[in-house]
C-alpha cells in the first residue's frame, strides 16, 4: 500500500491528474493555484498514503468476513454444518449476521466521541490511539477461543475504524496543501481520491486473501486478524509524522505549528500559511456556534438540508450494497460450489475497485445529481435482473451459464454503485451544510449510515434463508 520510491509517486501523479476531482471555488480556487510558486513536498504524498491505511482497514473488513463463512476450517471450528448444503440453518444465519453486524455496531460507538477525541488528543495521537484499539480487536479475532470472543474482537476493531473514519480524513485535509502545484486538484480531490481507492483496495485485498486461504484450516484467522498488520503499521508510521498545524495553532502552540509546517511545506511558504491558519482559527473561534435545534430550523432550509443528508446516507445503504459486499459468497454458493463462490466474490471486488476510478473522473465533470440518478437507475436495472435470474436459477440447478449471468448482474450493479452512490453520498453530505453546523450535521448523517449498515448486516443472512 505504501511505497515511497519515485516510481510510485510518478504513478500517483498520473492517476490523480487523470482521475481526481477538479478544483471547486472553496477559498483555494484556480486563482490561488495559478499563483502557487513552489512545488509540493514529496512528504505530503507520504502522509496521504499512510493515513489512507485507515480506509484499507475498513475495506479489508468489508471484503473479508463473508468469504470465511464458506471456508471449511472456519465452519468446523465454530461447529457449523460442513460445506455442501446450498443453505445454512437459521441459527448459523443468525451467527453470520452478528459476526458481520458487530463490527458495524463498534463503528457506531467509535464514531460518536471521535470529534471530541481529535480536539482533545490532537489528530496524530488520536489516530495512533485508535489504531491501537483496532489492533487489539484484530489480535482477538486472530486467536478467538469461540464465537463470543470473535464477536468481542469484531466490536473492538469496529470502535477503532469508527473513530479513524473521521480522524484520518481530518488529518489528511489539514496537512495537505489547498492546491498542488504540478497537477490540478484541491484538498477534497486528494482526500476522496486516495481514501476511496484505499477502501476498495482493502475489499479487493481481503477477497484475494480468501481465495488463497480457503483450503487452509487456519486460513480464516488471517482473514480476520491479518488486518492487524496494517493497523500496527499505521500506528508505527504515524509516530514519524507531524501533528496537524491547524490543531497546534488552535492550542496556542504557534511555534510547534511552524515546525510542523516546515516538514510539509517549502521554507518560503511557512510564514504565509501559518498566518493564514491563525487567521482562520481566530475567525472560527468568533463564529456563532450552531445548536442542535438549528438542524430542523426552516432558516436557510436547514430542515430540508438535514433530511437530504440523512436520506442520502440511508438510501446509500438501502441500495443493498453491503448485502452484496458482506454476503456475496453466501449468496453465490446457492448457485456455485463454495470455492467458486469465493472466486466470484473476488471478481466483483475487482470491478468495484476499477469503477472507483470512473467516479473520480466523472464526479465534477458530470455533476453530482446526474451521477446519482444514473447510478440509481443502473442499480435498479441490474438488481431487477439479478432477482429475475436468481429465481430462474432455483428451477435450473447447476446451470453454469445462468450462474455466470447472475455474477455479471452483480458486478454491473456494483459498478453503478461505485461511480455514483458510493463516494457521492459522502461528498453531498459534506457540501450541503453551512460551516457553523457542519460538524453536527456530519455526525448525524454518519450515524445514519452506520445504523443502517448494522441493520442490513444483521438482517440479510436471515432474509436469504429458504422458505419453509
UniProtKB/TrEMBL annotation:
Catalytic activity entry: D-mannose(out) = D-mannose(in); D-glucose(out) = D-glucose(in); D-galactose(in) = D-galactose(out); D-xylose(out) = D-xylose(in)
Full protein name: Hexose transporter 1
Family stated for the protein in its record: Belongs to the major facilitator superfamily. Sugar transporter (TC 2.A.1.1) family.
Topological type in the membrane: Multi-pass membrane protein
Organism: Nannochloropsis salina CCMP1776
Pfam families in the record: Sugar_tr (PF00083)
Keywords: Membrane, Transmembrane, Transmembrane helix, Transport
Broad class of the protein's primary localization: membrane
Binding partners and assembly: Homodimer.
Domain Major facilitator superfamily (MFS) profile residues, every copy: 47-468
GO CC terms, sorted: membrane
Amino acid at each position: 500500500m505504501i511505497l515511497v520510491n519515485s516510481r510510485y509517486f510518478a504513478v500517483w501523479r498520473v492517476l490523480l491528474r487523470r482521475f481526481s476531482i477538479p478544483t471547486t471555488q472553496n477559498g483555494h480556487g484556480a486563482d490561488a493555484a495559478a499563483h502557487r510558486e513552489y512545488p509540493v513536498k514529496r512528504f505530503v504524498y507520504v502522509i496521504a498514503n499512510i493515513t489512507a491505511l485507515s480506509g484499507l482497514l475498513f475495506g479489508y473488513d468489508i471484503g473479508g468476513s463473508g468469504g470465511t463463512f464458506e471456508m471449511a476450517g472456519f465452519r468446523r471450528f465454530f461447529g457449523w454444518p460442513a460445506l455442501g448444503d446450498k443453505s445454512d440453518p437459521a441459527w448459523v444465519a443468525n451467527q453470520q449476521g452478528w459476526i458481520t453486524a458487530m463490527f458495524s455496531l463498534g463503528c457506531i460507538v467509535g464514531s460518536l466521541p471521535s470529534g471530541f477525541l481529535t480536539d482533545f488528543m490532537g489528530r496524530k495521537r488520536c489516530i495512533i490511539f485508535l489504531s491501537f484499539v483496532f489492533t487489539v480487536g484484530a489480535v482477538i479475532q486472530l486467536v478467538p477461543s469461540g464465537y463470543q470472543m470473535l464477536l468481542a474482537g469484531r466490536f473492538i476493531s469496529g470502535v477503532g475504524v469508527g473513530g479513524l473514519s473521521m480522524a484520518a480524513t481530518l488529518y489528511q485535509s489539514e496537512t495537505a496543501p489547498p492546491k498542488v502545484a504540478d497537477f490540478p486538484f484541491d484538498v477534497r480531490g486528494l482526500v476522496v481520491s486516495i481514501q476511496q481507492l484505499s477502501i476498495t483496495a482493502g475489499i479487493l485485498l481481503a477477497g484475494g486473501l480468501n481465495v488463497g486461504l480457503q483450503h487452509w484450516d487456519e486460513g480464516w484467522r488471517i482473514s480476520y486478524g491479518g488486518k492487524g498488520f496494517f493497523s500496527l503499521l499505521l500506528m508505527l508510521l504515524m509516530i514519524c509524522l507531524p501533528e496537524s498545524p491547524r490543531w497546534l495553532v488552535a492550542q496556542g502552540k504557534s511555534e510547534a505549528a511552524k515546525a510542523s509546517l516546515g516538514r510539509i511545506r517549502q521554507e518560503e511558504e511557512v510564514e504565509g500559511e501559518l498566518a493564514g491558519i491563525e487567521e482562520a482559527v481566530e475567525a472560527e473561534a468568533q463564529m456563532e456556534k450552531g445548536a442542535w435545534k438549528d438542524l430542523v430550523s426552516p432558516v436557510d432550509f436547514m430542515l430540508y438540508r438535514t433530511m437530504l443528508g440523512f436520506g442520502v446516507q440511508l438510501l446509500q445503504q438501502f441500495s443493498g450494497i453491503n448485502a452484496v459486499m458482506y454476503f456475496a459468497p453466501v449468496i453465490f454458493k446457492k448457485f456455485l460450489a463454495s470455492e467458486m463462490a469465493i472466486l466470484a466474490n473476488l471478481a466483483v471486488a475487482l470491478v468495484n475497485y476499477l469503477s472507483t476510478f470512473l467516479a473520480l473522473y466523472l464526479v465534477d465533470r458530470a455533476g453530482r445529481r446526474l451521477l446519482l440518478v444514473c447510478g440509481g437507475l443502473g442499480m435498479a436495472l441490474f438488481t431487477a435482473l439479478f432477482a429475475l435470474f436468481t429465481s430462474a436459477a432455483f428451477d435450473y440447478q447447476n446451470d453454469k451459464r445462468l450462474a455466470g449471468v447472475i455474477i455479471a448482474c452483480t458486478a454491473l450493479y456494483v459498478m453503478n454503485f461505485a461511480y455514483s452512490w458510493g463516494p457521492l453520498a459522502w461528498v453531498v453530505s459534506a457540501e450541503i451544510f453551512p460551516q457553523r453546523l457542519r460538524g453536527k450535521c456530519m455526525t448525524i448523517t454518519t450515524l445514519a449510515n452506520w445504523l443502517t449498515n448494522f441493520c442490513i448486516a444483521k438482517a440479510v443472512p436471515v432474509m436469504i434463508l429458504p422458505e419453509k
